[in-house]
Amino acid sequence: MYERHIDQNKSLVLGKEMLKKLNLTINMENFKCGKFCTVIKVTDNEKIPFAAGKGVSQQAIISAIFETIEHSLFENMNMTTTPISLNSILEGDIKLKYDVPLKLIKKKKYENKIDCYEFKNEQENKVIYYPAFLINPNHKPPRGLRFLRKYCSNNGLACGVGFEEAIIHAINEVVERHSVSQLYKNYFIRKELKLKNISMLSLPVNLVKLWKNIEESIGSEITVFDITTVDGINTYYAFAKHSKFPLPLRGSGSSIFAEYAIERALMEIFQCYSIMDEADFSMDLLTLQKFNNNQIYMNILFHNFCEKDYKKTNLIKTIGDSVSVNNLNVIYDKMTMYLKKADFNFYFNIVYNKNNLYAIKVFIPGTDNFQAIMNGCYLIPSEI
């Protein structure tokens, strides 16, 4: 498997042991799309959706179990906080001045200290602080800052066997959501982007089959864009408009391995289609209602991309293709190098570490999570 520390059987055993330790009882529902894609929907004893996993056969089960563990650890996060002034927070990294919630706190002239989590950067041996209420939904915002609760996000929290596996997945997630955010803002707000439309025929045979199988299963055509913002960490965005659903089906993926990133984006489309329930449907309708008076945001929600702006693009082989898919030390080193070249410093906090199972929260100042508007969060672009 790509970017994994141990083989599937060992991962599955470890995952099941961890579920027992966390006292988690789950139900799994299986959705198949040909031979190449399985989606697992995880619900609790009350049939409430809790997590999902995607992959080929057993890989989907492992993915679902680890996402369940990740969500449980996130909801029960118990990290130490330190009261820090806004000025001291902003001094941590120069790119924090672009952070929207921090800009809004500054605009409000809030002067009290704020409970913060500490994040460290190993390469530069430094630490920064960031408000706990913007990371942990169970940490109450200070009085006067409750309006910022919508910016709270689990973005960059990932679980894995070993430090490298967890942090690779966490970095990929932050870069992926940043790239999707930039796609929305560049095209619909700044109006400055030509869309790199991936040609299906440029893909390997297995990905062409996967693409076609998913299109047949969902009954709709898929479009894939190359939306890479950090050279070397390939990021792709897939979407399909479907008459059964209020909003387009969406998927994205990031990896130093281009083929794996596209595979994840395509599988996420099938996952989105398979696990959609009444609650998701209602949330999409509420999202449309919330943004009804903002045409720019409505264009984003409906994915009103214009085909005249599409530029046919072939899948380009990258340096990742010359690296072993499970040599995690090399993958981590390369990702660190790519982020540095893109002028991003990344910081992390180890949320959980027992029996070589890690949960790590990664924070990269200067990255964006504007894409959360698709989930009904009325966020402000960073240009305020």
From TrEMBL:
Classification via Pfam families: YcaO
Annotated YcaO domain residues: 51-384
Keyword flag Kinase: yes
Name recorded for this polypeptide: YcaO-type kinase domain-containing protein
PROSITE patterns registered for this protein in UniProt: YCAO (PS51664)
GO MF, any single term: kinase activity
Gene3D superfamilies registered for this protein in UniProt: 3.30.1330.230
Highest taxon, organism lineage: Bacteria
Alphabetized InterPro entries for the sequence: YcaO-like_dom
Keyword set includes Cell membrane: no
UniProt KW keywords: Kinase, Transferase
Signal peptide span: none
